[in-house]
UniProtKB/TrEMBL annotation:
InterPro entries: Pra-immunoreactive (IPR051791), RDD (IPR010432). The chain crosses the membrane at residues 26-48, 60-79, 107-126. Residues 13-138 form the RDD domain. It comes from Actinomadura barringtoniae. Keywords: Cell membrane, Membrane, Transmembrane, Transmembrane helix. It is a multi-pass membrane protein. This is RDD family protein. One of its GO terms (cellular component) is plasma membrane.
């Protein structure tokens, strides 16, 4: 192990970094869900008057709404620069095995897999190449990338 993060540039990311990024992303998606509820309540208050209250969507729709927002958020981040907010904070980038950007279809499939089966991330602990099950299925890799360019 090294104390110099620059030495890890371009190496495959480990479990702790990737779980930390996923946790940050989960908080970001949760914040968007709460913000959407507040905005919907504000619109209802402005149009109908009365006391301001948050909408109470049916409980069975919450996983569908949260899952859909998660897939959109992850796909958008991985297509536009290869990073979500969590990846940015943790210095990670998602790319294809061939070191190219992931592309929309593969990013979408990876986002669906990560949202529906997050435990697949644990495969990193037994993989020689630090690949999650999602990485193996879509041919992606998560690397340390602080955006530094060699001088």
């Amino acid at each position: 192990m090294t104390d110099d993060p620059a030495a890890l540039q371009g190496e495959r990311a480990g479990l702790v970094s990737r779980c930390s990024a996923a946790l940050i992303d989960a908080f970001a998606v949760s914040a968007v869900c709460v913000l959407a509820l507040v905005c919907a309540g504000a619109v209802r208050y402005l149009l109908l008057g009365g006391p301001f209250t948050l909408p109470d969507p049916p409980r069975r729709l919450l996983p569908v709404i949260g899952g859909t927002l998660s897939v959109v958020y992850l796909t958008w981040g991985w297509v536009n620069g290869g990073r979500t907010a969590g990846d940015q904070v943790m210095g990670l980038r998602v790319r294809s095995q061939s070191e190219l950007p992931l592309g929309f279809v593969r990013a979408l499939i990876r986002a669906v897999l990560c949202t529906a089966f997050p435990i697949g991330l644990l495969w990193i602990t037994v993989s020689r190449h630090r690949s999650s099950l999602q990485d193996l299925m879509v041919g992606s890799a998560v690397i340390y990338d602080w955006g530094r360019r060699p001088s």
